[in-house]
User: Fold this.
Amino acid sequence: MTEKVHITGLKRSELEELAASFGEPKYRATQVFKAVHERRLRSFDEITDLPKKFRAKLVDGADISRLNVESRYVSTDETRRYLMKTMDGYPVEAVFIPSENRDTICFSSQSGCPLKCDFCMTAKLGLLRNLTAGEIVEQVIIVLNDVYGIAGQTPHGTNLVGMGAGEPFLNYENLIAALEIMSAEDGLFIVPNRVTISTAGIVPKIYEFSKLENRPHLAISLSSARDELRDTLMPINKRWDLDELMTAAKEFEGSLRRGERFTFEYVMLGGINDSDSDAGELARLLDRYQLTRVKINLIPHNGAEQLDYKTSTSERIERFKAILESRGVSAYVRQPRGRDIYAACGQLAALESENVKM
Ligand code: SAH
Assistant:
């Protein structure tokens, strides 16, 4: 058997090459692209406007779907978590987070994660493998179809966040390819301005990302303004320390568009990084690198049995926020979503949970 291609991960030009190799004209590529990404059809048989012979060749030579939804969990707050498997058996998770004016889909860039952030459940899996561009795009298609029906309109437009399992900047090429595919106007049409990618601090890729012409928004996971503590919380800090990270962040700030800001995420860990002096150090750090177009997202820690951390009290978080604000730093407290179904930040570890709804 020859290796099949995953059609969902092909850029337009690659689809055109595929069509040509089947002896088909260029416009067939657009037809297929629209069927996969705009109409979100899930099998070649459903693309009835294609000639039967071409369809048969596609069935032989390509896959539309390479992810299987194993379980779907629905939270009391309406968040949905999808636990899927790749064809070679690796877990992939995506989360749908509805809110009044917009919907957000959180996708994974890797199965598992190689980074060893001490407060995160995904870290316990280790890296299983990078996801392909097609597997990244397909997560979004699966979620949209589940929520709105196949080909169903998305009433609010969709925001995307690359904050699921894995470190997006360690799977950079596939990530960027997937984002390009998802931005197509005659496809999913999720433009970079609606996308935020979160990195734990892969410094060279922050520079590369800054130079991208049409880039998404960026969030950087910080969680401590002190090297000594960040080394233990996020060991990636031993590879690229705060000085290197903040220097890269400053460079990135220079690439911001009018009115755009970028984000530092700060996971609030009770008694670890949430004191008044931690808040002061954070404000000082931003000041030292003259970072002004930033906001801080304070994320209450989502606990788990295997994790030795507890979340900060809400009074502590409010106080931390107030200190930042008093120093001229914008700070926001994130509401955890989908905690009851292990869908919240740092909880994606391919866990089974009780609130299953298929
Ligand atoms: N690897 C990327 C993206 C995935 S994590 C990154 O590290 O940025 C998305 C966010 O969730 C990060 O800011 C991370 O610090 C945070 N996070 C990880 N574990 C968490 C937990 N248990 N509770 C709350 N936030 C957590």
The CA atoms of residues 227 and 357 lie 44 Å apart. The pocket of S-adenosyl-L-homocysteine is lined by residues 117, 119-120, 163, 167, 198-200, 221, 223, 265, 267, 299, 301-302, 345-346 (CB under 6 Å).
